[in-house]
Amino acid sequence: MCDASDYALGAVLGQRINNKSHVIHYASHTLNEAQLNYTVTEKEFLAVVFAFEKFRSYLLGSQVIIYTDHSALKYLLSKKDAKPRLLRWILLLQEFDCEIRDRK
């Protein structure tokens, strides 16, 4: 699960066992001066990228489901004419077996 606010990012690595979620790791990060100027969508995507970089050793070779409250992230992963920064992030996520789902 990933989320972003105006000033920080957060992520939770969890595992489902018998339909019950178990937390493995929490991570958070405050945004630097440049990142504070990102759009809401870019901040949400940055939260996902931050989580994948932070939890990389846990996630490689596993099927990963990303829960987010920002549904535009699904669209961004298929966008071909995005900003170079977003394209770099998309390429980074392509090495993982991941699926984005809306958090309800």
UniProtKB/TrEMBL annotation:
SUPFAM superfamilies: DNA/RNA polymerases. It holds the Pfam family RT_RNaseH. GO terms for molecular function: endonuclease activity; hydrolase activity; RNA-directed DNA polymerase activity. Keywords: Endonuclease, Hydrolase, Nuclease, Nucleotidyltransferase, RNA-directed DNA polymerase, Transferase. Transmembrane segments: none annotated. Signal peptide: none annotated. InterPro entries: DNA/RNA_pol_sf (IPR043502), RT_RNaseH (IPR041373). Residues 2-96 form the Reverse transcriptase RNase H-like domain. It comes from the Eukaryota. This is Reverse transcriptase RNase H-like domain-containing protein.
